């Protein structure tokens, strides 16, 4: 890859090794994402990844950025590379797409099985008040260059956005009547919301574990979350809110903030007292906090791939859209490989083989 050199079109690309310089550059780009921040890469480096940060410069200013997370595949002489919620740049600029993709593809040809990227490309941008890119042209460009839509989505490709530029009365008016009612119901029944700190992370994790068991999703051990939650709380880029009833935490929410956006990234609740509607009041207080912090968008972090009642996320989705946000459909993750046979073995054959082995082991245990 190029280092500190210009090409004939006037671009140059530099590696960034300074936290302040990196995050400041991100804030100059369209829709900077918290998963591209220095803190996210530093956290992932403590859990087996290696972070590299590239900045594309044109006419003395940053026009694109990509934080690449690289991980070795066991003892194999290969790695995978992931660009979470990136690269960041003006996605309507097809010439810039070509420049950025050229560098990522070069990485994929040097001891890397595949590169996965997660650019924020909204398919229904006009419906959510974002200048619409030419999505068909973007997809054609990706196909022409050998990128494919990934079968494995690390992050949610769809989400729900709330526009925070309106005042609180307008935000309440945009909500579904039942949502407004439940917010007020929680307050009437004595639910209170307070900010939390590092000393509350164990209690929040307990609620998160209960939620995972109830809703059937897999979570990591507490040290992993204590690390990431603690790092972002210390950096002032996360805010923990706890809903309490008679002094006992019954629900919690962790809000991540970077630039103009707040993300509802983690939520949890106890099995008891759910009829008190603590999650509704928590969301409203998080929305109010995001506005106080100067955010103009509230990302509710995740919507179903299929917008119908058969999707396992449908109940959570109905809860989110009750707050008056707009559903954003995303392009999703894309993969590029210079080793098609190895990519097929890793992404198709191995998952099927492992699934078969698990099924066989369960069948043998039941006999």
Q: What does this 3D model show about the protein?
A:
The protein is of the alpha+beta class. Helices cover 38% and strands 24% of the residues. It has 11 helices and 15 strands. The strands form 2 sheets. Strands 1, 2, 3, 4, 5, 6, 7 and 15 form an 8-stranded mixed beta sheet that branches. The chain has a 7-stranded mixed beta sheet with strand order 9-10-11-12-13-8-14, sandwiched between helices. β12, α9 and β13 form a beta-alpha-beta unit. It is globular and about 60 Å long. The termini are far apart.
Order of helices and strands: EHHEEEEHEHEEHHEHHEEEHEHEEH
Class by SSE composition: alpha+beta
Spans of at least 5 consecutive residues whose pLDDT stays below 50 are 1-6
Strand segment tally: 15
């Amino acid at each position: 890859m190029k280092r500190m050199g210009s090409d004939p079109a006037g671009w140059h690309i530099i590696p960034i090794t300074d936290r302040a310089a990196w995050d400041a550059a991100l804030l100059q780009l369209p829709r900077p994402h918290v998963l591209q921040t220095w803190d996210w890469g530093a956290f992932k480096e403590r859990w087996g990844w290696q972070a590299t940060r590239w900045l594309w410069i044109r006419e003395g200013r940053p026009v694109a950025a990509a934080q690449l997370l690289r991980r070795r595949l066991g003892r194999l002489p290969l790695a995978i590379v992931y660009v979470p919620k990136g690269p960041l740049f003006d996605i309507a600029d097809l010439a810039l797409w070509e420049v950025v993709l050229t560098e990522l593809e070069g990485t994929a040809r040097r001891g890397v099985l595949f590169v996965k990227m997660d650019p924020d490309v909204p398919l229904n941008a006009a419906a959510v008040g974002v200048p619409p890119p030419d999505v068909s042209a973007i997809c054609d460009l990706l196909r022409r260059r050998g990128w494919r839509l990934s079968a494995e989505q690390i992050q949610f490709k769809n989400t729900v956005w709330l526009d925070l530029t309106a005042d609180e009365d307008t935000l309440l008016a945009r909500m579904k009547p039942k949502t407004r009612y439940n917010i007020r119901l929680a307050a009437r029944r004595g639910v209170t919301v307070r900010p939390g700190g590092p000393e509350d992370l164990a209690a929040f994790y307990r609620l998160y574990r209960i939620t995972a068991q109830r809703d059937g999703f897999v979570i990591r051990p507490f040290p992993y979350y204590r690390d990431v939650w603690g790092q972002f709380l210390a950096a002032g880029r996360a805010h923990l809110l706890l809903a309490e009833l008679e002094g006992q935490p019954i629900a919690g929410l962790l809000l991540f903030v970077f630039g103009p956006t707040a993300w509802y990234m983690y939520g949890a609740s106890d099995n008891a007292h759910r009829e008190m509607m603590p999650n509704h009041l928590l969301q409203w207080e998080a929305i109010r906090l995001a506005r106080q912090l100067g955010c103009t968008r509230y990302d509710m972090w995740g919507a179903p791939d299929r917008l119908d009642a058969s999707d396992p996320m449908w109940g959570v989705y109905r809860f989110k859209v009750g707050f008056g946000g707009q559903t954003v459909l995303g392009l999703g993750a894309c993969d590029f490989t210079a080793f098609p046979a190895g990519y097929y073995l890793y992404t198709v054959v191995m998952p099927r083989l492992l699934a078969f082995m698990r099924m066989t082991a369960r069948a043998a245990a039941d006999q």
